[in-house]
Amino acid sequence: TTPTITLAVNVGSVTEDGTTNLVYTFTRTGPTTNTLAVNYTIGGTATNGSDYNNIGTSVTFAAGSST
Asked: Which SUPFAM superfamilies would you find in this protein's record (predicted)?
């Protein structure tokens, strides 16, 4: 069985230069026996590191972890 990854965002939008952060939660369903690396991209007109804090392009699930 192949794991399925879902993405949830807490707080749907924020104001520019505001103090509220978006919180992204990646969840894995299915097998959790092995470590799993997931690559992702962010689209839109905002620039990583300029319009928002520099964020990575992957998330790694530890063996046994679902979030």
From this structure: CalX-like
